[in-house]
């Protein structure tokens, strides 16, 4: 099963034909699984005595984890992923202006993660650890 799906942005040099694709991850199967796995311990903890919340609060934990994936994607897009735009304005081989050819889905998806998926997952896990520490030390 392909867990990852991307929206590639295609750039081509009109002079020499050099091509460049910039990958953008989408909220696809892998991220839904990651959000569900991250919401699971919070949901189980919320069922136990100090909180004793109703079971359907788990849906709000899942929504919160999906929001946290959005936040980690936002944090990555304004910091790290900007470095991936090299070679989209000027050609790396002949220095001519690059031509943007549009974005497209790849509907089949990919079995392996792109490095941006790994960075997103690390930021998502760091946000979750910060959340769990905030809950654990909240008085
Ligand atoms: Zn070129």
* Structural class estimated from helices and strands: alpha+beta
Number of helices: 3
Helix percent reads 40-55%
**Which geometry do the CA atoms define?**
elongated
Catalogue the unreliable spans: none
Cα Rg = 20 Å
Task: Note the beta-strand portion.
Answer: 5-15%
Topology pattern, helix = H, strand = E:
EEHHEH
Q: Spatial order of the strands in the main sheet? A: 2-1-3
State the distance separating the first and last CA atoms.
44 Å
Average pLDDT taken over every residue: 91
Ions, cofactors and other ligands present here are: zinc ion
* Overall number of strands: 3
Q: Main sheet?
A: 3 strands, antiparallel
Quick structural overview:
The protein has 139 residues and is an alpha+beta fold.
Explain what this protein looks like in three dimensions:
- Helices cover 45% and strands 14% of the residues.
- The chain is α+β, with helices and mostly antiparallel strands and 139 residues long.
- Strands 2-1-3 form a three-stranded antiparallel β-sheet, with no helix packed on it.
- Strand 1 (6-12) and strand 2 form a beta hairpin.
- Helix 1 (29-47) packs across helix 2 (57-78).
- Zinc ion is lined by residues 13, 15-16, 18, 91, 93-94, 96.
């Amino acid at each position: 099963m392909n867990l990852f799906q991307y929206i590639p942005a295609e750039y081509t040099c009109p002079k020499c034909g050099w091509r460049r694709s910039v990958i953008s991850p989408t909220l696809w199967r892998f991220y839904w699984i990651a959000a569900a796995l991250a919401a699971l311990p919070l949901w189980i903890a919320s069922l136990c005595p100090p909180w004793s919340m109703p079971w359907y609060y788990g849906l709000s934990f899942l929504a919160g984890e999906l929001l946290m994936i959005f936040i980690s994607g936002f944090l990555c897009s304004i910091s790290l992923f900007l470095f991936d735009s090299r070679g989209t304005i000027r050609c790396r081989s002949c220095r001519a202006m690059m031509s943007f050819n549009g974005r497209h889905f790849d509907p089949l998806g990919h079995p392996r993660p792109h490095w941006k998926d790994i960075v997103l997952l690390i930021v998502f896990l760091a946000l979750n650890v910060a959340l769990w520490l905030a809950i654990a030390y909240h008085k």
